[in-house]
User: What shape does this take?
Amino acid sequence: MSSTTNYILGVYDDEDEVLHAVSAVKAKGIKIEDVYTPFPIHGLDVAVGHARTRLPIAAFMFGSLGMICALALISYTMVFDWPMIIGGKDFFALPNWIPVTFEGTVLFTAFGLVTTFCISNNLYPGNKAEPLDLRITDDKFVMAINVDKNKVSATDIKKALKDSGAIEVNTK
Amino acid sequence: MSHVVSPIREKLVTGGKSYSDVTHDICKQVEGEPTKEWKIAFGISALVFIYGAYCLFYTWWQGIGVWGLNKTVGWAWDITNFVWWVGIGHAGTLISAVLLLFRQKWRTSINRSAEAMTIFAVLCAASFILAHMGRPWLAHWALPLPNAFGSLWVNFNSPLVWDVFAISTYLSVSLLFWYMGLVPDLATIRDRATSKGRKFWYGLFSLGWTGSSKTWARYEYMSLILAGISTPLVLSVHTIVSMDFATSVIPGWHTTIFPPYFVAGAIFSGFAMVQTLLLITRVVFKLEDYITIEHIEMMNIVVTVTGSVVGIAYLTEFFIAWYSGVEYESYAFINRATGPYWWAYWMMMTCNVISPQLFWSKAIRTNLLVSFFLSIVVNVGMWFERFVIIVTSLHRDYLPSSWAMFSPTMYDIGDYIFSFGLFFTLFFLFAKFLPVVNMAEVKSVMKGVSSNFPAKKAKAAKKSDEE
Assistant: This one.
């Protein structure tokens, strides 16, 4: 958050109120920057208007990559680089390789997914970003509206927030 | 939010807590000075750890000849302890992943400490893997690394190599899942911090979390996918551990029932260990409103179900040993129950098959003292199960002249003590420096499950339901 941004913050103390307030405020033609909450609220991202995340696609791709890498490593070592007859089986003993291939798939999926998640949300150790209101990580729900991105006047925004049930309206 | 909770459900958070009370109650442990009870408990664990570390160091220095192994019994306490700890390490991920997929809300108060316990248990298990190699500094030989022998690779057809991959994947994925669950709660501590040091450290690990609805939406998806991949992962781990035995040709080990039987046993012992720790934690940290009798009862029900599965597996093994008509197989089982290790076998049967059946009585499964006692009994039984499987199958082999008994030395015992020291030292450090209950998740299920939720909010919830 750059310090020059002009925010109006509506503070709510109930998850259902903030969820209804989002639709009420939007109905007045006000663009909401984001809503900050202490815990996930189902349907809030849809109400605010965020696009559905593509993380599952990333997870699938990392999983496939893991599977291919595991199979490639095992085939290279067991079939091409140093083939050995083990238990009288073929060099290419696919059923025996399923456990390691599975673990490789899971490992790549988990680390790829979490890394993608952190990058897409700009989460990294040493990130000094702080919530717009310190009570967000405790018990308050904060709707942030960027005045510069809205055609509606600041006074009207504040009124809309108050009307929708905000217990406080602050600026930042 | 979905507030559709049946009115006959027990409340999962009692005492009329508000969101802010949750934050306060859980952060109190992290922010306050360590209590006297904590210092005493931590001191004892650290002493046990130091004594155990000496024994383990001596084992590494001298080699595994200091153990009581002999030519006939080549695996005993080392692998028993390994399987026991890995089994215990199944509950955390099961609670956080499987119960998340099943949308079990009672999971939220206990998943954090159960996952921490999982990670520490797997570390304890790893200490036995390293020790039983004899030359732990060559442990990397189990990995497929290019080497000085013309790239002689590891054998990917061997269950022992599968185990290396399974355990290391399980440890790292569990750690990742646990850490990602911690991030929002670390941010809570960061935002409450009054000292610079705390603000820095919790700020560093909370990765700049702001609580944005966009981040939360992605976070929910990420948790769901992690749960989805952790569920088969957790089942694969003990399946592969069981294959270390099942793919051998030793009578008593060579059985196809091992994978499901080991997984059930793992969940059984893991839940019992979570129960033991929770019953201590809720009293020491005064978390009775978060870890309620309802939670204890749910855990006991899982213990009964998995204990019964294990009981059926024991009986099936016996039946198949007779039905197969293989005399070596039959002898292995008759020897277990009536041979020189009969006491270990009947210890296992009593602790694992009979004792969990007591939980059919509601009075017993909601009694804290009895639950605590039985949770320890279950883990004693599960240790004996692994001892029985490993030692009684080995000690009388095909050649009667080589029949032998196993007796542990002080280093067998000392290395086992080491794992307890490690486990409890890590657990007490966790309980002091990290929030023991997942605050964000508890808050997210409080409406509808918390008793006497402040009237204003209840009204708002009602209003939203009508709309």
User: Anything to note?
Assistant: The radius of gyration of chain B is 24 Å. Confidence is low (pLDDT under 50) at residues 451-458 of chain B. The CA atoms of residues 275 and 375 of chain B lie 6 Å apart.
